[in-house]
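Much of the work behind modern protein science is quiet bookkeeping, done one molecule at a time. The protein below has been through that process, and both of its lines are reproduced in full.


***
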Amino acid sequence: MPGLAAAELDAVSLVRRVARALNRRISDLVAVLFRHKSAGSFGAVAGFAIAVVFAWKFLRSSSPARPPRPAAPKRPLAGSAAPATEPVGDSGKLTTRQIVARRLSGCRRVTCQLIGVVFEEKSPEELQKQATVRPSVVELLLEISKYCDFYLMETVLDDKSEENALTALESAGLFRTGGLIKEKVLFCSSEVGRTSFVRQLESDFHIDTSLEIISQLSRFIRCQLFVSSVEGGQLSANVFNSLSLEQFFS
């Protein structure tokens, strides 16, 4: 406060003036004492010293106490930020994006078979006639393509099958966000080719309906999902088993 600050300055100034005066007085008395070494001189010095002590204590007790300075707010460390929590859906359940992040556990490249996982069709022969994207997987596939480097692949019998597959994916809107593009949809003529694709891409997480491919890749791939209505039997510890893609990510 301005009034308090002024009072402090006056008190400090007064103490300094008194100290200077006392200093000069003590110097004079000491000089007198050395010139006149008598009992009277010693008594005068002792009495004056006692007076100085009492005067100093009085001035200190009468000076206003300085208010404590408010603690300065702690500044955050450079580069640090409060941990952000991703909002949960209105019903309190995890959002699709949160489920994808949790299930993939940091996997940055994912490969996925089309037939039996993304498409309703169950065989390459069916794909020659048509391709139908399962509506329940569209949102999920879009979230996966936003979260990681995502590739789709399939074993096909002819060019017509490739055309049917790409047309169906485009009609379902899977190429609209840019996360998944046509160049990331790969086709081969055998299951050996699909296995080779996965290894060449160095996938972290592969999704397939072929138990043989899952078994061959289990030594090389961090995680896999075997999509099948039948139990996979004795699967490796890094292989999950689910009836469908959306059931695994639920």
Observations:
- Residues 223 and 238 are 5 Å apart (CA to CA).
- The two ends are 63 Å apart (CA to CA).
- The chain is about 45% helix and 10% strand.
